[in-house]
Amino acid sequence: MKALTASVIVFSTICLTATHAQAEVRNEPIKVIEPYVSESPEKVELGKQLFFDPRLSMSGIISCNTCHNLSYSGTDNLKTSIGHKWQAGPVNSPTVFNSSLQIAQFWDGRALDLKEQAAGPIAANVEMAMPHTLAVDVIQSIPGYRSQVEAVYGTNQVTLDHITDAIAEFEKTLVTPNAPFDRWLQGDDNAITEQQLAGYQLFKQAGCVACHYGEALGGKSFMKMGLVQPYESDSPSQGRYDVTGKEIDRFMFKVPTLRNVAITYPYFHDGAANTLEEATQIMGQLQLGRNFTKDELANLVAFMESLTGERPKISLPLLPPSGENTPRPNPFQ
Amino acid sequence: MKALTASVIVFSTICLTATHAQAEVRNEPIKVIEPYVSESPEKVELGKQLFFDPRLSMSGIISCNTCHNLSYSGTDNLKTSIGHKWQAGPVNSPTVFNSSLQIAQFWDGRALDLKEQAAGPIAANVEMAMPHTLAVDVIQSIPGYRSQVEAVYGTNQVTLDHITDAIAEFEKTLVTPNAPFDRWLQGDDNAITEQQLAGYQLFKQAGCVACHYGEALGGKSFMKMGLVQPYESDSPSQGRYDVTGKEIDRFMFKVPTLRNVAITYPYFHDGAANTLEEATQIMGQLQLGRNFTKDELANLVAFMESLTGERPKISLPLLPPSGENTPRPNPFQ
Ligand code: HEC
Ligand code: HEC
Ligand code: HEC
Ligand code: HEC
Ligand SMILES: [Ca+2]
Ligand SMILES: [Ca+2]
Predict the structure, then answer these.
(1) What range does the domain containing A164 cover?
(2) Is B288 in the pocket of ligand 4 (CB under 6 A)?
(3) Across residues B243-248, what is the average pLDDT?
(4) What are the φ and ψ backbone dihedral angles of A266, each rounded to 5 degrees?
């Protein structure tokens, strides 16, 4: 009996470590990222295939991964994205890494969650330019997708809802835990350098943390870009004003996550800042009315570099072959 | 001593099975594909990263994988490829699966091997549009590439030669063994259907095998497209004539591999045939002066469907972050 109890305890401890990262031992406004464990690995696999499938675009060559490159930063690292027919989009592509940790999606928050979000780019003319009915027809026509939808959703009549739900479930797995800063939060004093620690102290003391807090250091609120001093941009976006039409929302943007920010250049909704140093200087001036010294800037940047986490290890999906009646792409439409 | 010998024998047997597929037991003009085992896994890994890296393109969004999608067929499945600034290329993109099994690269054979080939698309204006010196500068500026080049080639001065050599080594791993037809060649009578077997017999008897033979069912010779009856195409390509300038080479194309041909639609150097049935009918008429019946066509297509092999299982590479001085992409240049 005693032996049995002991092994039950061991077993449940293992389960715990498998599903939860060690919590932070330091009490800070920034929290560690926990790995996400899906209850439906089949749904994740289906969503992964769809994320990588260029057949969801009119041209046949653009997938979600084109603009949110999971090999690198979860973005395309362009000022503004390039989509169907080489059209330049109006705003910078945010990373999909840790996007599930936000209260809303898009710079202006016009989608409530990842599922609602995923319908957008498929049909958007400057992105994948694929009418939703055609996207559904394509997936429905591919035997290997039909059978997966059947297994996950219990019907072989594919809907847009299945497509976006599966993609969203896959995206939830795209968290990047175990950044040096997370290990510091968990009690490892040597996980970050002295300079990074100094940067973090300034980050709190200067007030960056008022907007960039929580697991994602952002993603939890909308704030005005250009609080103290106005921001000048050549982008047409007016932030949340475009969604609500209320004057008070003009130039309110979702505070972006600073997770992996060292590799998600260029910065801001218009992609106008090329380096982290430049973005930080602008933040200081426009949001806090403060001019950082060269050393202060270097410390803040060093701190943000400690936020680069472990990118998910993903096996390249093998996409199910098209069926006889799968509509063919039309790159010049 | 006896035990030792026995285990040595067991060990070497395992090694053998690990590096060689079981040879065919049937004596046929088509041979099984053997898996490729590289002597330098580090070089393969470096080549894989480069294959997936869009920083090798002027726009920052096109990688080798854009036009040779390893998630699907090793091609882009377009009539002709779309490259930098949405330009349509002159010819159909061939699959990179099993391309190492060919005597030369490109439809007109203008590159002798994969290493020579890889330099082409990087600089080609309708593909990645990236001057070679800039491509080398980009790779040289990325610390994680510099260290890998150092480990593989013993110098941290990156050259174009390193880039193309590593990509070529990765491409050699992209073979697709174990197709149903390979298992039939290895003696498994049930690996293919009666219809597929009938199709194979017709494939030999009609004379397809005169051009489509060997491991890759093609890739071993240049043949005239339109041997019996001329082929009409809107493509500017004149085949090997474009390379040699000799009249005799006009419209001579490298016989393409039929491995995985069921998923490498559309067909021919100009991508003009949409289905395998259509391509087969044209081959019969133009190369052999023969009109296949509906049943004959169905059998030939069924046989070719038995040539879809196991696509390599690839883990998505995690690309090394850009350095401070890494040149940024210029999508509209
Ligand atoms: C042509 C480029 C392009 C393609 C293709 C594309 N996206 Fe995006 N994505 C963007 C841009 C640009 C934005 C920002 C738009 C905005 O905020 O108004 C964005 C925003 C997002 C967001 C919100 C992130 C955040 O923090 O607010 C998510 C999630 C996302 N995309 C996922 C996807 C998925 C899933 C697909 C495929 C179904 C996809 N994207 C296809 C460029 C693209
Ligand atoms: C009042 C709220 C607020 C404060 C304070 C603030 N930020 Fe921001 N931060 C934002 C918003 C909103 C954006 C997005 C602005 C845009 O894209 O137009 C942003 C963007 C950024 C970006 C660019 C991220 C990206 O991916 O594009 C960085 C880096 C950044 N902030 C760092 C800082 C630092 C460092 C501080 C302190 C010196 C700071 N922020 C203070 C709200 C704030
Ligand atoms: C914009 C599309 C595009 C890009 C990007 C591209 N290719 Fe290609 N590739 C093609 C086309 C089209 C051909 C056929 C050209 C010809 O035969 O004249 C081709 C031919 C090839 C071949 C010869 C295959 C055969 O059977 O003859 C190989 C190998 C290859 N590419 C590998 C690569 C590598 C490696 C890269 C990246 C360094 C790359 N390609 C980038 C479109 C592309
Ligand atoms: C005399 C040589 C020759 C014979 C005989 C021949 N082929 Fe071909 N085959 C070629 C060449 C050359 C091409 C490429 C033509 C082009 O792209 O313009 C080709 C292309 C093909 C393609 C398209 C492959 C692709 O990926 O685009 C298929 C399918 C095919 N052949 C099947 C057959 C079948 C089935 C037969 C017998 C009925 C046959 N071939 C007989 C030389 C031959
Ligand atoms: Ca960015
Ligand atoms: Ca083809």
Answers:
(1) 41-172
(2) yes
(3) 95
(4) -75, 175
